[in-house]
């Protein structure tokens, strides 16, 4: 499996293929199945049923070789497959940067959104191809596929920002993003979503 | 004229239009005419003639409001108009980051290249739409339009990287990039280019 390069690294050209979601040359690639996402969706019974039936891949993250190291600016492409669990859209785990640093997401294909939470106020940025979602330092962030096709975006983030997944488990993300009539519907994080 | 936002800033959605090269919402926009680029091209007589005849805009840089401040990750879109001066392709001034930090360029339209120099070795990354050029910390960088249309790219860079234009004046960029037969031609930085 490809790994991150070890600094100092040379200048490099990186290409990405929206049809596949890969980066060339490739760094690490990770895949999150339903079974990897215990506790993520509010409807535990619906999550368990989805896990036991087909255990589908919910999202994949393909990185370039640019390493997560101080001074570097790594990139990755995330593909969230369409679907919902108990009416709650497929999403990433979400994380906070332990070292507060900004990050950008650039929509490549499909339709989704960027949910941000600073511990007090949730914000929602609708994402589509050509839209940059800006994540200021201090805002936890999660991506959600709100469409019927794979939602794919390019992330660019400082190599020393880090990933704190525990922050989201402790504080939540303010909202849950649910299937609505046409538009996504937002529910307070603690509430059980209505199955859709 | 739009300015950078003042931190702390809220999450925001930013769109960009390849046909115009602008960002919405907009931060600062700068325009470099031939008269702003004294000393950039090797053929001083050709530069002076171009300046005196029409003083064309050689390149423009449109920034989003995300500020050049520690912890932020600003973005800009650069458009280099096609052309050459004494056979040397239109290019940006080029700079080094005084605070060594990586940067990415993403090709949006047209054809160009990213010239990098670490003080010893020049490198050339051909750029086209969908190509990421990775600039590791410590590499000075300049962009060049090698085609017949505007060459446009998105830059994403850490807000505290800074811009040192003097480094390039002192050390050069290793190569000059000249019109060749089909492909660009590279000449040692000190040499006079052959008019093309």
From TrEMBL, chains A, B:
GO cellular component, one term: cytoplasm
Reactions this protein catalyses: alpha-D-glucose 6-phosphate = beta-D-fructose 6-phosphate
Gene Ontology biological process: gluconeogenesis; glycolytic process
Known EC number: 5.3.1.9
Region Disordered, annotated ranges: 1-25
Glucose-6-phosphate isomerase prokaryote domain mapped to chain residues: 32-177
Alphabetized UniProt keyword annotations: Gluconeogenesis, Glycolysis, Metal-binding
GO molecular function, one term: glucose-6-phosphate isomerase activity
Xref: CDD domains: cupin_PGI
Residues in the signal sequence: none
Pathway: Carbohydrate degradation; glycolysis; D-glyceraldehyde 3-phosphate and glycerone phosphate from D-glucose: step 2/4
Family membership noted in the UniProt record: Belongs to the archaeal-type GPI family.
Protein name: glucose-6-phosphate isomerase
Naturally occurring in which organism (per UniProt): Saccharopolyspora hirsuta
């Amino acid at each position: 499996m490809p790994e991150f390069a070890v600094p100092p690294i040379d200048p490099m050209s990186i290409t990405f293929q929206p049809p596949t979601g890969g980066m060339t040359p490739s760094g690490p690639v990770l895949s999150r199945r339903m079974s990897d996402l215990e506790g993520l969706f509010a409807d535990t019974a619906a999550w368990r049923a989805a896990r036991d039936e087909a255990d589908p891949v919910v999202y994949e993250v393909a990185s370039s070789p640019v390493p997560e190291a101080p001074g570097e600016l790594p990139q990755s492409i995330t593909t969230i497959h369409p679907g919902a669990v108990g009416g709650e859209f497929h999403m990433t785990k979400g994380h906070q940067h332990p070292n507060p640093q900004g990050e950008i997401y650039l929509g490549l294909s499909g339709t989704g959104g960027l949910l941000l939470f600073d511990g007090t106020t949730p914000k929602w940025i609708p994402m589509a191809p050509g839209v940059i979602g800006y994540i200021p330092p201090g805002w936890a962030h999660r991506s959600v596929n709100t469409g019927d096709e794979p939602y794919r975006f390019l992330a660019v983030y400082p190599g020393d920002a880090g990933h704190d997944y525990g922050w989201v488990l402790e504080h939540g993300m303010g909202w849950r993003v649910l299937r609505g009539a046409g538009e996504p519907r937002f529910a307070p994080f603690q509430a059980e979503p209505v199955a859709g």
